[in-house]
Structures
1.
Amino acid sequence: MIVTCNECNNTFEINCDMKLINDIEVTYFKCSECNKLYIICCVDEYIKKEQRRYKELKKLKNESLKKICHKNITLHSNMLKKKMLKENAFKDL
Ligand SMILES: [Zn+2]
């Protein structure tokens, strides 16, 4: 996927990396020009559990619960990202 950096307008191909920080899997990429960090998602045990549940619900075709489950995952991932930004946990990426 090709993206444009918000910071320097450089256009580049995303090259994702994954790193474990405090038992949380952080998926991210950096601008090839200015090195600006972009966090794609943060996954902890809770999210892994919800992702498994999501797959099950998909099989069962339970649309309403599937939606709630997806919302849980998104909210929790955003919350983790905010918390980690506040703690400056991404400084070594
Ligand atoms: Zn940039």
2.
Amino acid sequence: MNKNIDFESLYNILREISTSLHSGAHVKDILETLVMKSAQMFKAKGALIRILNPKTKHLDLGASYGLSDQYLSKGPAFRKEFVMDLCRQNRVLIIRDILNDPFVQYPKEAWEEGIRMIVDAPITYKDDVIGILRIYFDEPRELSEQELQYLILIAERGAAVIQRAQLLEIQESRYDQLALQTEKLSALGRMAAGIAHEINNPLAGVLLYSTNLLKKAPEEGPFREGLEIIIQETLRCKTIIQDLLEFSRPSEPKAFLTNINKVVVKVLHLLDNEFRLRHIRLEIDLSKLLPEILIDENQIEQILVNLLLNAIQAIEDQGRVTVRTYVTPDRKNVAMEVADTGCGISPENMSKIFEPFFSTKPKGTGLGLAVTYSIVEKHGGKIYAFSEPKQGTRFIVEFPIPRES
Ligand SMILES: Nc1ncnc2c1ncn2[C@@H]1O[C@H](COP(=O)(O)OP(=O)(O)O)[C@@H](O)[C@H]1O
Ligand SMILES: [Mg+2]
């Protein structure tokens, strides 16, 4: 009896997976097809795919075929270290001694499930393990070298599917993040603009009278001290109000075709001292091939100052800030990136950082990023934030390249 698989059925599986990959089918469905077809091709009892969750480092079930719920509910039957090992050797592992092999975590359950042999193929992407394809047989059998090669081919397809799933997830969460911000910011922005206008006038009055009084105050004493504090604090309010007005001002940027590197160089020069004083290493990587984009130089300066000050403030002791500019891979945008090795942002704060007045700093105004967001938006651009608590934060600002450039 010939149990070997033929090239044609393998070809059909690979083709089916490729087609569904490009047709926009759901990742889950594609993985289901993949495990089902693999099991059928090897005339096996069942098969499953587990995907390494980058956050929890667990191997989550991606899809399974031919296995009872009871067996699956036992949880991942293997640990990441083991998969890593497998991956490092880049080989397929065949387990024949179900009851005694250390790689079978639930031997008794596996035996009761009728499993007599297991074949594992690592799913890798760029030398990193991202999952595993496991085939279950109900009787021991020999696998030819060619069959093992086939299995690796299928696992490679699996890698493409998982890659796509993860990409989609990132895109979706980026979109959710953006939609949420836009909605919140427009409501808050309208309110803030109203309040800012109302407060601006009385504030100017307070400042005028207190400055006048100061001129008449005695050289020393509590009277002068008090007035100085009033003036100082009023000036602080004015800055906040100005930021607020900036944030909500509907005016269009006065944009000219500019190489963004020019702005970056100017701002870095401006903040040079700040970096030196705090012993923060600054790494600069500006693309020499940037097309000019339509930007309001003053406003972009403001964005970069905001991002850099935040980066500096996030670094307690030593650390590194990296500023990069480049053209995005799709060649549609110029990107400016500010990354730091600072304290990072907790996941629950991530959705709030662009809100006006959200600040975790004792003296923060919480307006830097709100203003930044609104300037980026007025430029038709996008801003993304990525952060890992205690590791650092990265902001990417993208501006569209005009068609004529
Ligand atoms: N690079 C960064 N690293 C860590 N946290 C940041 C960073 N940038 C912004 N944040 C967080 O976002 C909040 C809002 O930033 P921002 O709008 O500039 O206001 P502020 O700097 O006045 O607090 C900060 O208080 C901080 O919690
Ligand atoms: Mg700030």
